[in-house]
Design goal:
Number of helices: 3
Helix content: 10-25%
Number of strands: 9
Distance between the termini: 35 Å
Largest sheet: 9 strands, antiparallel
Structural class: alpha+beta
Length: about 200
Amino acid sequence: MVAFPRAFFAVDSVELAPLLLNKLIVRGERVGRIVEVEAYAGAADPASHAFRGPTARNATMFGPPGHLYVYFTYGMHFCANVVCGPEGEASAVLLRGLTPLGGLEEMRAARGPAARLDRDLTNGPGKLCQALGLDRSFDGADLVTGDRGVEVADDGTAPPSPPGVSGRIGVSVAADVRWRFYVPGAAGVSRARAAP
DNA sequence: CTTTGGATCGTCT
DNA sequence: GACGATCCAAAGG
């Protein structure tokens, strides 16, 4: 289990996204393997929260790489991103699906009765935040130092080659951009339909 | 299995 | 005042 240097995150989101596949996100006992992500490219990407410039909500995206950007949406859900690229450029990678590896009891308790199967614990961006207990108080957490108890780590598992690729889910613009990456066949990949 | 509609509120126009 | 980088229960095949 090895932590990443900050330089690992200081690259474009489209480059980093597939590299995060099969890496781990760790919060205490709770561990998940990252199996589905989407890249968002800041000012150049109409689907990004940062497309119209900095605001109070998206400030973390403009900060240094290797931090967590957590936002609230649909009146009831949180989503978590890994901030990447150089400081000042608001690119990020959305975590969309995990395979639960550890702390399953805590995850079940956090998710409640709706998660009937273990694969339902973390197979969606809102679900994985709920399972890991990530909310707005984790916005800005440093994934390199683990200053708030959350970090990204490597257990030596290589990313898939090639990864699965598709259009991004849930976005109403730039539907032709294929920046969703996933581990084919892995438990925890969300079942929502993507653009083929 | 798939499809559909409701929930619910912070954020930006 | 409108709309989400969503989830879930319910209903239909």
